[in-house]
Specification:
This protein has 128 residues and is of the alpha+beta class. 23% of the residues lie in helices and 41% in strands. It contains three helices and five strands; from the N terminus they run H-E-H-E-E-H-E-E. The chain has helices spanning 2-13, 24-28, 79-90; strands at residues 20-23, 38-48, 62-74, 102-112, 115-127. It has a five-stranded mixed sheet with strand order 1-2-3-5-4. The longest helix is centred in the first third of the chain and has 12 residues, at 2-13. It is elongated and about 55 Å long.
């Protein structure tokens, strides 16, 4: 699974400065991460293009999956520095069976109780 590969990559290359790297289920179960700065990886969307081999015995489709890395940091932490570390670790990296990941941008998704949550978006392309 792509999310697991991304989690492994971030654990190998981004600790420190990240203290915690985990997945979607762990994010859903925690109102606030126990350790910050933290990164949570989740597949946010997937789209498929039409079959590229019309009439062939075996279809070939391009699949585009958007992966989000949600950074959680407390006030006083540089979100730009965290973004740069994660972006440098993932942009151009190609997990097995996947084209090199492309960075697609970021947005603040929540601010609460002294924490800022920022989602970084990456595009991953595979062919099936």
């Amino acid at each position: 699974m792509l999310s697991d590969a991304v989690i492994g990559r971030l654990k190998d290359t981004c600790r420190p400065p990240l203290r915690l790297v985990d997945g979607l289920l762990e994010l859903a179960g925690a109102p606030s991460p126990p350790q910050v700065p933290a990164a949570y990886v989740l597949p946010s969307s997937e789209s498929a293009e039409p079959n590229l081999k019309i009439g062939a015995d075996r279809p070939l489709q391009r699949i585009v999956e958007m992966i989000e890395v949600v950074l959680v940091a407390r006030a006083g932490t540089s979100l730009d520095s965290l973004r740069d570390v994660v972006r440098d670790a993932l942009r151009g990296w190609a997990p097995e069976g996947v084209e090199p990941l492309e960075y697609r941008g970021a947005a603040i998704i929540d601010i609460k109780a002294g924490e800022v949550w920022r989602a970084l978006r990456f595009e991953a392309v595979t062919f099936v």
